[in-house]
Automatic annotation (TrEMBL):
NCBIfam families in the cross-refs: rimI (TIGR01575)
Protein name per UniProt: Ribosomal-protein-alanine acetyltransferase RimI
Family (UniProt): Belongs to the acetyltransferase family. RimI subfamily.
EC number: 2.3.1.267
Stretches assigned to the N-acetyltransferase domain: 13-157
Origin organism lineage: Bacteria, Pseudomonadati, Nitrospirota, Nitrospiria, Nitrospirales
Any one Gene Ontology molecular-function term assigned to this protein's record: protein-N-terminal-alanine acetyltransferase activity
Highest taxon of the lineage: Bacteria
Native species: Candidatus Sulfobium mesophilum
Keywords of the record: Acyltransferase, Cytoplasm, Transferase
Length: 158
């Protein structure tokens, strides 16, 4: 399991807190990964919030993936996860999600929520491996193309 606060190396991948100079690469990966990407302002605003995090995965100093999440009281949210297309299928997303879950657990969350496009079965399978369960859908939540969001939740054992 990936531990919060440490640089993690696997296949020369290091996961660390994002810095301001990582933002351009994060935006580039976001645009390559999603048809309706977050704006630079959205990422910048999340980075400024005291109860949120943006972690980046780097290989050879290059940002190859990221995870953004946050929490309110005992409820955590994984807001965005993406990996550069050239670095997919290397378990980088799993490393990021594992670290995100541990961070939210450390912050006292009892639940973690996320949304995933209904057609994104590989991501849904990955989340299921971490114990996330489908709890509902948001009809027509996504645009370009219009698609439902599958709402998933992880409940930590008390």
């Amino acid at each position: 399991m990936v531990r919060e606060g440490l640089n993690q190396t696997w296949q020369d991948i290091i996961i660390e807190d994002s810095a301001a100079d990582d933002l351009a690469a994060v935006i580039e990966i976001e645009r390559m990964s999603f048809s309706t990407p977050w704006s630079e302002t959205s990422f910048f605003n999340e980075m400024k919030k005291p109860k949120s995090f943006l972690k980046v995965a780097k290989k050879g100093g290059k940002v190859v993936g990221y995870i953004c999440g946050g929490w309110i009281i005992d409820e955590g949210h994984i807001l965005d996860v993406a990996v550069h297309p050239e670095y997919r299928r290397l378990s980088i997303a799993s490393m990021l999600v594992s670290l995100g879950i541990e961070r939210l657990r450390k912050e006292g969350c009892r639940f973690v929520f996320l949304e995933v496009r209904s057609a994104n079965e590989p991501a849904a399978r990955m989340y299921s491996k971490f114990g996330f369960e489908i709890i509902g859908t948001r009809k027509d939540y996504y645009t370009s193309p219009v698609e439902d969001a599958v709402i998933m939740m992880l409940k930590f054992a008390v």
